[in-house]
Amino acid sequence: MSHAPDPDDPLAGVDLLRSVAPGSDPALDALVAEARATGDAFAAAALLRGAGFAPERAAAALSQAELRATGTAKLGERAAGMLLTRAGLEQATRWQVAELHGRVLAAAGIEQVTDVGCGLGADTWALTRHVPAVTALEADTETAAAAAHNLAGTGAVVEHREVDASWQPPAAPEAARCALWFDPARRTGVADARGRARRVSGPTGLRPSLELVTTLAGRVGLTGCKVGPGWRHGDVPAGAHAQWVSHDGDLVEAVLWMGRALASPGGAPDPLRPVAGAHSATRLDHDGTVLAHTDSTALPPSPAGMPGHRVLTSEDELGTHLWEPDPALAQAGLVGVVAGGAAEARAAELGTGVGWMTADLPGDPAWVRTHRVVEVMAPRPKVLSAWARRREVGELVLRKHGSSLDPAVVRQRIRTRGDQRRVLLLTRIGDRQVAVEIEAPAEP
C-alpha cells in the first residue's frame, strides 16, 4: 500500500523522485501523458489516483512532466528524459552556454574536471563532451539523485557530498591538467512576487562562498565559477578573468575564470582562451555559435580612470543613429571597443556608463542594433504630452537606459489617443535626462 513519505527522512524523498523517473514505470508515463492532455490539473490528478497511484506519487509525476515541458527551452530535447527540481531548473545553465564552458576547458588542455555543486547536471553533461574525466559533486540529497539519473551513461562519476577547504580535487597526472567548475547557489530562499527565490547578485550569500572557490582554485590549473550576469567589476578576484555571456539576445551569466592555465595578454581576443586579469564579452547565437567576442585588451588606450572613447556632453552632439549594444558588451564595460573602432561614424557613448552609443552611420550588427533618431526632447510632462498629440501616439513603447526616471510614472503622464505605435527611449546625454523618439529596428 502506498503512503506519504516521511518529511524527516530524506531517503523517502529520493525514493519518491526515483519512482517517477522517465521510463521507470511505462504505465505511469502513459497515464501522465493522457492526464496532461486534458489540460485540467484537477482532472489529471484524479485520473492518476483513479488508476491506483498514491496521491503523492501522482502529484510528483505530474510535477515532473510540467518541469520537463518547461525545461525543454533551457535544456533541449534531453529534458524529456531528465529528473528535475524547480529550484535546480531555475539555476540550470542553458545547454548552448554550457557547451561554451566545456570548450574553454578543452582549449586549456584540461583532462579532469570536478563540477562542485553540479545541481541537475546541465553543465556536467556538457563537460563530459569535452573533458575525458568528469566528477560531479552535489550536497543536496534529492538533487544528487536527480543528477545521477540525468548523467547515467555519460561516464561522469556522481557523488553526494559537500566540499570544504580541506577537500582535495581528484588528481590527473599533472595538477595543471585538472579543473574545477562551480555554479554556486545564488538564491536566498525568500520568494519574489512570482514565487521564485530571490537571486544574490554579489559575493555575499554564494554557496559555496567565493572565498572557498578561490582557495580551491589554487590547487588546479583552471577554475570556472558561474555567477550572476549583474556581477560587479569590483568583485572580480585579482588576476581572474570575468567573461559576460549573452545568448540569443539575453544576458545570461558571468563566469570568473581563475588559475595558471589562463592565457597571457597578446594576440586577438579568443572566447575559448580567457586572458588573466582581463574581462570579456561573448555573444552566442540561438544554437550556441559564437557570433562575436572581444575583451578589455582591445580597448583603446586611455589615461587612468578615463574612457578611451568619446562620450557626449551635450545633445547638440547627438548623431542621426543610436546604437543599442549587446547586453554582454554593455555589462562588461566594453562599448569602447566598438565606439573606439568607428571613428568614421563619429561614434560616442551617450553618457558615462549609459552603454548606448550615437553615430552618423549604422553600427556593426555583430555587437549593436541600430535605431534612427527621430526627435529629442526634455522628459517633462507637458513636452511629452504635446509630442504624443503631434505624433498621434496610440501604442507607446517606453525603454530606459541610463535614466533616473521611472517609466511607469512617465507613462501615466502621457495621454495616448492616437493610433500610431511610437518608441521612446528614456536616457541620459552627458548629465542631462532626455527622451528620444527612435525608430525600432526591423525584426530579423
TrEMBL record:
A GO BP term, please? methylation
Q: Which residues form the signal peptide?
A: none
Can you tell which superkingdom this protein's organism belongs to?
Answer: Bacteria
The UniProt keyword set, sorted, is: Methyltransferase, Transferase
The reply to whether Methyltransferase figures as a keyword in the UniProt entry is: yes
A single GO molecular-function term is:
methyltransferase activity
SUPFAM superfamilies reported in the protein's UniProt record: S-adenosyl-L-methionine-dependent methyltransferases
Which InterPro entries does this entry report, sorted A to Z? SAM-dependent_MTases_sf, Thump-like
Protein name as catalogued: SAM-dependent methyltransferase
